[in-house]
Design a protein that fits this description.
This is DYH8 protein. It comes from Vidua chalybeata (Village indigobird). GO terms for molecular function: dynein intermediate chain binding; dynein light intermediate chain binding. It is a single chain. The protein has about 170 residues and is mostly helical. The chain has one domain. The chain is about 80% helix and about 0% strand. It has seven helices and no strands. Helix 1 crosses helix 3 and helix 5 runs parallel beside helix 7. The radius of gyration is 21 Å and the shape is elongated.
């Protein structure tokens, strides 16, 4: 029981740390007013990297051994652990899925940033791709995510027009 108690303490520390990571990941992002759509992709790539690292750690043999010992001891701490493990898995899957979908927009980011204000040729394809993401993505199709993406696309268009006017 002494070993079990020590292992439960370790799991409780991990639980607290994982909860902190989850809370921080769910906080509203602070971004500059003129940030473009490439920042959205970078955000999700960073988040995917963080959650994949956390998943790798959770799936490590060291952690699995501790969890199996606690399972054998029928520890009460495992209920919280399993819930957090599930939340981390969902967050990792969301980030991975969002990166995959946002990469389909990546080909528009360069032309959108470097074009003249007559960027209309890119807009229909860009909007079709955004529509496809909204219709098929299980995670990114929320008004929150779409609003953020459209805001960044609009910011990029405005920045491109400003740059063009200042150079002309």
């Amino acid at each position: 029981t002494e070993v079990t108690e020590k292992l439960e303490e370790v799991v409780m520390i991990w639980t607290k740390q994982i909860r902190q990571v989850l809370v921080e990941s769910e906080q509203i992002r602070r971004e500059a007013d003129d940030v473009g759509p490439a920042a959205e992709l970078e955000h999700w790539k960073s988040r995917m990297s963080s959650f994949n690292s956390l998943l790798d750690e959770i799936k490590s043999s060291r952690v699995k051994k501790i969890i199996s010992i606690l399972q054998a001891a029928r520890s009460k701490t495992l209920k919280q652990w399993k819930e957090l493990d599930g939340r981390i898995t969902i967050a990792a899957n969301e980030a991975k899925d969002n990166v995959r979908y946002l990469y389909t927009l990546d080909k528009f980011f360069g032309p959108l940033a470097n074009a003249s204000p007559v960027m209309m040729e890119h807009i229909p394809s860009l909007m079709n791709t955004v529509c496809m993401i909204y219709c098929t993505s299980p995670y990114y199709n929320t008004s929150e995510h779409m609003t953020s993406l459209f805001l960044k696309i609009t910011n990029q268009m405005i920045n491109t027009c400003k740059t063009y006017l200042c150079e002309g």
